[in-house]
Amino acid sequence: MRRKALLLTILALLFGWASVAHAQLGSGILDPSRAIDWTQSGIPGGIPNRTTICATINAATYGNGASDATAGIQAALNSCPANQVVSLSSGTFRINSGLRIPSNVTLRGNGAINTILDAHGTSGAVVSLGIGNPSISGNPSISSGATKGSTSITVSNAAGINVGSYLMITELNDSSFVTITGDNGNCTWCDGGLGWNGTRVRGQIVEVTSVSGNTIGFTPALYSNFALTPLATPFTMNAKYAGAENFQVYANNTGYTTNFQMQECAYCWISGVEGNYADGDHVQVGWSYRGQIVNSYFSNAFSHVAGTTDADVFIVNKTSGFLVQNNILERLHGSIILNWGAAGNVVAYNYMLGNFDSSAPNLLMFGTATHGAHPQWNLYEGNVTHEMGFDSTWGSSSHGTLYRNWVKGTTKVCNPLTGRGAIICSPMGVQGQGGVNGWWAV
Q1: Judging by DSSP bridges, how do beta strands 388-390 and 368-370 pair with one another?
Q2: What's the pLDDT band for 31 if we cut at 50, 70, 90?
Q3: Bridge-based pairing state of the strands 91-95 and 231-235
Q4: CA-only gyration radius of the chain, Å
Q5: Are 64 and 92 in contact (CB under 8 A)?
Q6: Residues in a beta bridge with 240
Q7: Tens digit of pLDDT for each residue in 148-197?
Q8: Distance (Å, rounded) from C-alpha 115 to C-alpha 120?
Q9: I need a surface site. Which of 41, 139, 219, 379 has the fewest CB within 10 A?
Q10: Are 374 and 342 a contacting pair, CB within 8 Å?
Q11: 181: helix, coil or strand?
């Protein structure tokens, strides 16, 4: 929807607020046993300011959307030297499949209103930053050091573990507070479908800083104790320092799973983009580390029912240390969902409104949520939303912190409930009262 003046005003207010507001340390506010150092979320030093342009691609070269520009843009991305930018002009670029941004390259448009990726593919992501899933063929056990605050562990075998690589720290589910059983059954895929069959849903991704024999140093410190047969599974990120900036994805309901995807991506970012409708989700993030989704506008979706996607920003599969800040999320099914072991992430200063389920439009849908085992140690600070939901549909979650959010408990649902069209609010009503709900204490 296009209430440009209002939305630009809201963005300006939010940008001004977020520019001076940061995720707070828990010292003096939280019991230390429930707090971690959330300043370790996001890209160290912030998003790189890249100024060297390796290629400029003009929309007129492809008839301003008349012909497919995918191959031309991808070729420029593939040949771009490290720490440089592929620049897209104003205009429309037809995308018939998907783009993949490699490590150390930025894809930058001329503003989300001016540069439009007109998306016509039938699967996957319109824009990918990283791809793939970790292998669990090597799973060295941890003999010591797997305690809250530790930055060093001793493993049974350090083969394949190198400085700059990554470890997925896990343990067997602790039945005293972790379960994969919920209202809809057992979430056997909640540890990422890697072969553990839901037995290791709780975990954290860390970056290796030193290797001395079987002693491994890493960052950040462990968020919690890992005592039940802990493992340190090594894997390599498929992309690092890849960025998407200042363009719009215009969805056409042709079959994409998501507009943007970060998969096995470290220090990657999305900034200043617009998702103009989504076939599935707006953003999916899995197996990733210390990235950012900031200063963006995600609006509307073709699907507003429960299913494999929720038209949301979806952070899953033990993704650790992400910063989701200063975004507007409007008329989705859900706004921001953290699932399947996502840990140590910060969701801050986002504005959410107008979510609905087209099969039950009077049901108050959530803004932020956990919905599958076992996200932990995540901070939700300074958000404006209609509801924050932490359910047990697919298992447990824990150690979440909600701090100075404005939870309104109501929102307005407007037509159309399906498809694109002019937004008309007068025939529709206001959803019922809500707020913060869930089965665990915050």
Answers
A1: parallel
A2: confident
A3: unpaired
A4: 21
A5: yes
A6: 266
A7: 999 999 999 999 999 999 999 999 999 999 999 999 999 999 999 899 99
A8: 16
A9: 219
A10: no
A11: strand
Closest CA relative to residue 383, chosen from 432, 334, 326: 326
At 434 the pLDDT is: 56
Length of the chain: 442
Start-to-end Cα distance in the chain: 34
Identify whether 230 is preceded by a cis peptide bond (ω within 30 of 0): no
Percent share of the chain, pLDDT over 90: 83
Residue 22, both tokens: 């940061």
Q: Which residues contact 132 (CB under 8 A, 6 or more apart)?
A: 238, 263, 264
Q: What is the distance between the alpha carbons of residues 380 and 421, in angstroms, rounded to a whole number? A: 33
pLDDT of residue 393: 93
d(CA 83, CA 94) in angstroms, rounded, equals 26
- Average model confidence (pLDDT) across the chain: 91
Strands (E), 96-150: 99-100, 105-108, 115-119, 125-129, 142-144
| Cβ 172 vs Cβ 199: under 8 Å | yes
